[in-house]
Amino acid sequence: MTVILSVAVMVLAAGALQAQEPQKAVPAVDKPVQQPAKSAGTSSVLQPVSEEPPGYSGSESCQVCHEDISLAFKKSRHAVVETERRRGWEGRACESCHGPGAKHAESADTANIRNPSKLSPDKADAGCLSCHTMQPTHVGRVHGSHGKNQVSCASCHSVHTPKPTHGNRMTRINGQCGACHTSQRASFQRPYGHRIPQGAMSCADCHNPHGTQLTASLRLSTGGEPGCLNCHGDKRGPFTYEHAPVRLEGCQSCHEPHGSANPRMLTRPTISQLCLECHAGITQPGGGTNTGALGGIPPAFHDLRSARFRNCTICHTKVHGSHVNRALLK
Length: 330
Ligand code: HEC
Ligand code: HEC
Ligand code: HEC
Ligand code: HEC
Ligand code: HEC
Ligand code: HEC
Ligand code: HEC
Ligand code: HEC
Ligand code: HEC
Ligand code: HEC
Hints:
The protein is mainly α. The chain is built from 18 helices and two strands. It folds into three domains: 53-114, no CATH class; 118-217, no CATH class; 227-315, no CATH class. It is elongated. The relative contact order is 0.06. The structure holds heme C (HEC) (10 copies).
């Protein structure tokens, strides 16, 4: 009795599984199917080869019913898949993403065709990555938050639509990122910030949406330095006298990269507060004062009660590093 029951449970469970995953019936992402070589001579007459490999019906057949998408697609970057033989999908671009479509083209039944938006994000992305492998889109994805949080390729890329000709590329990217990251978008509205709202640069100048090995998917410059140096090249070393945090902790140890209420996008309202965060002696329980926790302490002649000494960068002008002076004075 228990045997029969458990078999019944198994059958039921299998049925439920199938019901949950209707896409099972849809063919998996395929390698391009090589067309059988058309041999010269009479044999090809004796054994006629169909135009398309089995299961495929070609993009022209799709156009009959999906005219808008097909016409728009011809102007998109993916149209090269349709025309360039060497890519292995000549004449069958639609099916490079949607799988063999002959059955669907005959029945017009949605159950016979793969719709990436109905797949789980990882399965849908695997289809894209079957071609976009060995690109930044692929290599950083394991580390980035988008891959880990099921933000699929298609949530940012609309593949059939032609390249938009209107508007500014930066504004389009920022609008898209900002739609999900509302608090980050708002941080650029602070009094001192990078000019994202004006469309002068984009989120993708600092972040790689496909992920990188760094925290927050930050980009590096071509030399492997912080991506900030792509634009702020004058802060690039190597300096004879480095200011340790610039290299070790990065620009964001003193600046709020998106935007800030403080001038120069600093993390503190006044410069001395910022410097003294690291360059201050910490009083020990025993009464003595140790050297600064992170940096050295200013020599005694710095009278911090006097306004003259509170504006540190009046004297320490080379706060990002100096070629000539150890105390970063010039
Ligand atoms: C005979 C007409 C016809 C042909 C030919 C045809 N389709 Fe469709 N297709 C349909 C209809 C009808 C739908 C359902 C539309 C709807 O629900 O709005 C559909 C839906 C789809 C969908 C969405 C499926 C879903 O689950 O929502 C995809 C993807 C698709 N077609 C791709 C193709 C591709 C690729 C081809 C060529 C290989 C093709 N179609 C050829 C009629 C056709
Ligand atoms: C580069 C991959 C790719 C190619 C090539 C491609 N599609 Fe799609 N298609 C998608 C993705 C991803 C979706 C689901 C997300 C979306 O709607 O953008 C989709 C959705 C669809 C849908 C259903 C949703 C809708 O917009 O009505 C249809 C129909 C469709 N595609 C038809 C086609 C046809 C016809 C072609 C060839 C002219 C084609 N696709 C080429 C990736 C592709
Ligand atoms: C059959 C192979 C193939 C598949 C599958 C494929 N792509 Fe592409 N993709 C290409 C080719 C080829 C190009 C053009 C590359 C070029 O111009 O150098 C391209 C270009 C692109 C571009 C650049 C467009 C631009 O305007 O710069 C994006 C974005 C893109 N693909 C996203 C996707 C997404 C998202 C998917 C999955 C829904 C996908 N691709 C699936 C082959 C493919
Ligand atoms: C969070 C949004 C987002 C996601 C998710 C995303 N992309 Fe992109 N992708 C972008 C942006 C933004 C660009 C840069 C466009 C530009 O500079 O004009 C881009 C550029 C590209 C390009 C052009 C070449 C390049 O590498 O710069 C390809 C190809 C591409 N993406 C494919 C993919 C694929 C495949 C996936 C899924 C594995 C994916 N993208 C996921 C936003 C995204
Ligand atoms: C569809 C919504 C969506 C869009 C569009 C989107 N993101 Fe995200 N992003 C997320 C989610 C979800 C996470 C992970 C959870 C979190 O950290 O908020 C994330 C995380 C991040 C992170 C955190 C750190 C990391 O390791 O990646 C950065 C940076 C980021 N996104 C930048 C961008 C940029 C730049 C764009 C535009 C090219 C963008 N996002 C577009 C949803 C989105
Ligand atoms: C000037 C470079 C720059 C620009 C432009 C930029 N970011 Fe960032 N972003 C950073 C840096 C640097 C961090 C890391 C901050 C840290 O480590 O504390 C970061 C962190 C993030 C994070 C992680 C969570 C957080 O707030 O710390 C998200 C999400 C994010 N940025 C989204 C965006 C979006 C969306 C845009 C465009 C509207 C954008 N960023 C534009 C440099 C930039
Ligand atoms: C795409 C180029 C670009 C990148 C990348 C970039 N910046 Fe900027 N940054 C600018 C521009 C342009 C301005 C001037 C903005 C203005 O005029 O309002 C600026 C302004 C600043 C300012 C304020 C300067 C002042 O005089 O008030 C600081 C601080 C700053 N950036 C730090 C950073 C940091 C830190 C990073 C990396 C996380 C970074 N920037 C990445 C282009 C860039
Ligand atoms: C130790 C703290 C600190 C670090 C780390 C730091 N900065 Fe600064 N930065 C400052 C201070 C303080 C000012 C304001 C100087 C003044 O007003 O005299 C400033 C000013 C700036 C300015 C505007 C004025 C100018 O000199 O052009 C830019 C741009 C800038 N920093 C970029 C960067 C970049 C890029 C990095 C990373 C490579 C970085 N900063 C790292 C403290 C720092
Ligand atoms: C995030 C912590 C941090 C901040 C903020 C910071 N510094 Fe430093 N600073 C350091 C460290 C660490 C050293 C290296 C100390 C060493 O080598 O003994 C250093 C070195 C120096 C030196 C060189 C002298 C020496 O001891 O080698 C001067 C001068 C200096 N900092 C001034 C400043 C000024 C001015 C500011 C504010 C604009 C500032 N620092 C902000 C951490 C910081
Ligand atoms: C009036 C000019 C002036 C001001 C303002 C000033 N300093 Fe200095 N600072 C100096 C001089 C001069 C030296 C000594 C350089 C030497 O010994 O060769 C020095 C040395 C230092 C050193 C040690 C450098 C070393 O080589 O060991 C630190 C750390 C430092 N200052 C931090 C600060 C901080 C933090 C502030 C703001 C609270 C500040 N300074 C304000 C002139 C100034």
